[in-house]
């Protein structure tokens, strides 16, 4: 067969094929359009696995439902937790299977909820080294930290996480790919406030680390985002210095905020997953343009909880409820409805008298009706949150996780004055005192007890949390039995269940119930 006949045969074959088969019009394939959309679901400062305010807000199973829904719409969805989730919590202080729970409940819930990425918050270092190492090992989500590492003896190395004990990286690169084949790389760095200094953690300067991490990611990724747990001023500072970090998903303040800094965004959601941020990032590979659209979404009763996560949450709340019942509490009972938020954030409790501090001090007074003045160390309040709306017994349990009794002491006016003055100067620490019936008149520099000038020669009956009488509180080491200016200590009647001094939490519950009437 010569060339021309081959051609002819070919043409005939083609003709035959076209005539006998249904005509197939070639469809223009979409192909890679060089545009891609990724979604970050951001939460921060979550201590509670179950909803709060009588079930109205928050709840990790609801967050899981949001993640699932976002993931169905876009497989390139990442759930981020920007620090503070292992502590404090009332469940965390309980014992289960022979050891303190200490955030194990939260890791299990976060694993189920499909959290992808986290960084350390200051509260992650409240728990013991061994406890933190266990939580890291149990987590199936990815940790990233540019400025915190593990100190053992004289050496420092990254913390490790997951069953395989993989080193927690300083930076990481996420690879996203959409249906039409557009692929991008997203650089991620993590920064933590160095406020909670512990022996087993080393903090390097977060500003220097941010710049270094950003510079190393710049060459590897299409754009860079950060997960941070810093004071907002520092987030803004980091953002100003590294304008290429386009989105800083932050935490620590507990109230939502959204700041635009040049071309970057600094976002924080509300604590305890009362809200989450949903950031939609659209990237054009050709123009290298990134647009970010953020929505603050309320986590409330309109969201049906995701059942698997809900199951894990129920397991842990069941364990906790059982322990509370054994102690005589009904965690679900609504005891009060507050019209204004009760301020329990450490950034307030340890710096100024707050309405929550006052309320607890008044509850101490009510439990010890013969007392003339009442006080508590603000460090006994660990909720680090505002209590809003319906207050349940559980809210009181999480507010005062250390429990303890109320004691009364007959003390000389000179000692009372000294205690109150030091308590007022203990700014920023747990030894800052919240009081009832004690007022400091700043212009005179004098204390008033129940409206009367404090008399140094008088003996006062003072009601206080038992911890304050141990001598363990900062700068109040002299405040303990044996101090010659303490003339008598009154203990609660352990056999009398109606003696509210036996448990400060019972005293607060009873007092709040009485306010309702
Ligand atoms: Zn924090």
UniProtKB/TrEMBL annotation:
Swiss-Prot/TrEMBL keywords: Hydrolase, Nucleotide-binding, Signal
Ranges of residues in domain 5'-Nucleotidase C-terminal: 344-473
Gene3D superfamilies: 3.60.21.10, 5'-Nucleotidase, C-terminal domain
Keyword DNA-binding: no
InterPro entries: 5'-Nucleotdase_C, 5'-Nucleotdase_C_sf, 5_nucleotidase/apyrase, Calcineurin-like_PHP, Metallo-depent_PP-like
Short name of one Pfam family: 5_nucleotid_C
Record protein name field: Bifunctional metallophosphatase/5'-nucleotidase
Organism: Rhodocytophaga rosea
